[in-house]
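User: Could you check the structure of this?
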Amino acid sequence: MAPVPTRTLPPNQASDRSPLAIPVGAVVPYDMALDRELRRFSQDGYGFEQLDLLFTRTRFEPLAVTVEQAREISQPELITEAVRAVSATDPAGYIYGCTSGSFVRGLAGERRLAEAIRTAGREAAARAAFAVDAASAAAEPRQSTSAAEPAAVTTSGALLDAVRALGADRVAAATPYDQAVGALFARFFAEAGVEVVHTVHLGLSGRIWTVPWQTTCELACRADHAEAEAVLLACTNLPSYEILDQLEQDLGKPVISANQATVWAALRQLGFDYYGPGDALRSAVPVGPGAGPRSDTGQLQEVRTV
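Assistant: Sure, the predicted structure tokens are below.
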């Protein structure tokens, strides 16, 4: 029998760090189809997943991709319940993997959502641990594997963090949404002092995960603008893993996708390096052990944001 290969930690990781992936609760919308892509973005330089993403979904809503849907799938009580559903596994943190749901209520809404996730995760994990310990009176009290204050990442917050890490003040946006949803995306960044100088939409109402790579590449190229210091690919259901490196080469500037930024931010908060596609984020901010949290295709519709 051939010997089982052992894993060697990358040289920049602490020698006492477990080689196992760190559990992270992943709350995603009911129509999310790209779990696999989020996992791929978390891989280290050896192809091992650094985050053990434990997925849970919001309840089903028979809605098209609109502002109404974004509001429905991001109700704080709904997200809190989803966090609780996965909290018994004692995650080190949580992500809310939805772009529109995390920007639809503006910058203040995103911050409230992140805080609600942290609070719900901390309290629910503590209750779960207490229940287990109470049922095992003879056992020694269990030591939680997560921090007292779990990490909390929303996709829109992560995109904003990525833009700030790149030192960009003006960006372009490529979205699969309609103009109403896209306008709220631009407003979210404007509130944070980042100008979206140009936006291109696909105007889709659903099944965004079926958009071909070539369409996404064309969308990003149409969105690019001479004044933009980076191009953002919005929506966690828009595939991007395979094309980020090529897009950065073609456009000569950072291209940041929703899924990429979400995982990058989670890794950053948990003290891990990002090894995925996209050279801009790989080298944006030194991240290592001990790093803390942050302070059906449609026709292209081109919009100049004023």
